[in-house]
Amino acid sequence: MTRYVGAIDQGTTSTRFMIFDHAGGVIGIHQLEHRQIYPQPGWVEHDALEVWARTREVIDGALTKTGLAPTDLAAIGVTNQRETAVVWNPKTGKPYGNAIVWQDTRTDKLCNDLALEGGQDRFRPQTGLPLATYFSGPKIRWILDNVPGVRAAAGRGEAVFGNMDTWVIWNLTGGPNGGAHVTDVTNASRTLLMNLHTLDWDEGILAALGIPRQMLPTIRPSSDPEIYGYALGKVPVCGDLGDQQAALVGQTCFGVGEAKNTYGTGCFMLLNTGTLAVPSEHGLLTTVAYKMGRQPAIYALEGSIAIAGALVQWLRDNLGLFDFSKHVEDYARQVPDSGGIYIVPAFSGLFAPYWQSDARGVIVGLTRFINRNHLCRAALEATAYQTREVLDAMNQDSGVELTALKVDGGMVYNELLMQFQADILGVPVVRPAVAETTALGAAYAAGLAVGYWDTLDDLRCNWQVGHTWRPQMAEEQRAQLYRDWKKAVQRSMHWLDD
C-alpha cells in the first residue's frame, strides 16, 4: 500500500499542501499566502492565477521537504474556501477577472431585488439558504451582467464557473488539456443554485438568476471512487469538500448530533443531522455535510460567522497594533477583561443568525481608559460571543443540547480565546491532537475513495483529544457579559440606508 495521502487546502488567505499517514498524522506541510485585493469598500477579490501558482508551489514544497515523490501518494483530496466564485475561459485557462471572495458584498442590491418576489427565503425550501451576498450564485450573475463579453462567451461554451475547488481541480487534472470541470455536493450546496433534495442544479433558480446551466460544473460525491482525474502523473484526485464540511469529516463527526466549530478567517459551526435536511427556524443554514461514494448524502445545520481571525488580521494590517497575529494574545493577557468594550466585526454585514447585509462593524463602550490591550482582548472575545449566538440557534433548531464542542482551525492555539469560549458557552471545548482538521478531512475523503482507509470507523480510531478547556466563569457573570454583547450587536444593525 502506498504510504501517504495528500490534501490541498485552498483557504481565504493562504494555500497549503499537507501529507498524512494512515494514522492521520502530519508527515509534511508547505503553506504560502496570496494577496487580498480590495478594489473599493465592500469588494474582496483574489487573483485566481496567483492562487493556482501558489497551489503548485506548495505541492512541490511539501514533497521536497519530505523527500517524497508523487508515486508515494495514494490519492489527493481538495478542500477550499467556499462561495468564492471564478469564471474563466476553458480553452485558454484565463479568468475573466479576479475571483469574487465569499466576504464580498457587491451583490447586495441584486439579492434585495431578487427578494422582492418571495422574500429573503425565496429559495430556502430548495437550497436551505437565504438570499445573501455570501453565496456564489449572485456572484455569477454579477459577472455575467458586469464583465463585458462574458454572457456571450458563456453561450459559446467559452466561460465556465467554479468555486475554488473546481478551479483547482480543473487545473490540477489538466486545465485546458482535458481538466475535469467538477465540484462536489458540499460546494454545490453553497452556490444557492443546487437543490438539496435532488443534489442537482435547480432549473427554476437558474432561470430566476439568468445563469446558463452549461457554465456549471458536474456535481460529484465528496469521496468519489470513480476519480475526478489524475494529477502529478498518475495520482488520483478523488476527494473534494468545502472547508467547513472537510473539518466536520476531519473531526469524525459522523453521528447525528455531533458538532464542530472551525476558527479561521471566519468561524463556522456544523451539526450533523444525518440523512435528514433539517430546515432552520433560527437563522442557520441547511447544507450538505458530505457524500461518500454511492452512500446517501449526509446533511448538516451550519452557523456561519464572517469575521473571526480576520478581525485579528485587521488589527494587525489596518491598525498596525502588532506585527504578527500570534501577538494578539500577548497583549490581551495584559488586562483582566475588555474594559467594558465590545467589537462587533460586521465588516461584511452580519451572517448567522441575523443575515443582515446592512450591518457594519462597531466598537462600543469606549472610554479614555481603553488601550491597545483592551482592543486585542475584545477582538478575541468577539469570536467567542458570535459562536455562543450560533450555538444557541443550533440548540433551538436541533433540540439537542451540546455537552461539549469540538474545535479546530488556526485560532484554537490561542489559549486565552479557548478558555473564554468555554466560559461563555458553559460547556467544555475540546481540541483534537491534529487541529488542522480541514486538510485532514479532504485527505480522508480521497483516501476512502481509493481504499487507503476502508470505513468511517477507521477514521474514528485516529481521532484523539489534544486539550480540553472547562468553564470557570460564574453563571451570573456569563449572563451579564452576553446580554451586553447582544446590546452591542443591535448597535451594528441597519447602518446602511440603501
Biggest sheet: strands side by side, in what order? 17-18-16-15-21-22-23
Overall shape: globular
**Helix/strand/pairing category:** alpha+beta
In whole angstroms, the N-to-C terminal distance is: 60 Å
Count of runs of 4 or more consecutive helical residues = 16
Tally of DSSP β-strands: 23
Q: Mean pLDDT score, rounded? A: 93
| Major sheet description | 7 strands, mixed
Question: What percent of residues adopt helix (DSSP H or I)?
Answer: 25-40%
| pLDDT < 50 stretches | none
The percentage of residues in β strands lies in: 15-25%
Evaluate the radius of gyration. Answer: 21 Å
Overview of the molecule:
The chain has helices spanning 48-66, 108-115, 124-127, 136-146, 150-155, 164-172, 185-188, 203-209, 243-250, 309-317, 327-332, 372-398, 415-425, 437-449, 456-462, 475-492, and strands at 4-10, 14-20, 26-33, 45-46, 73-80, 85-88, 99-100, 160-163, 182-184, 194-195, 200-201, 218-220, 229-231, 235-242, 259-263, 267-274, 285-290, 298-305, 342-344, 362-364, 405-408, 429-432, 465-469. The protein is of the alpha+beta class and 498 residues long. Strand 1 (4-10) and strand 2 form a beta hairpin. The longest helix has 27 residues, at 372-398.
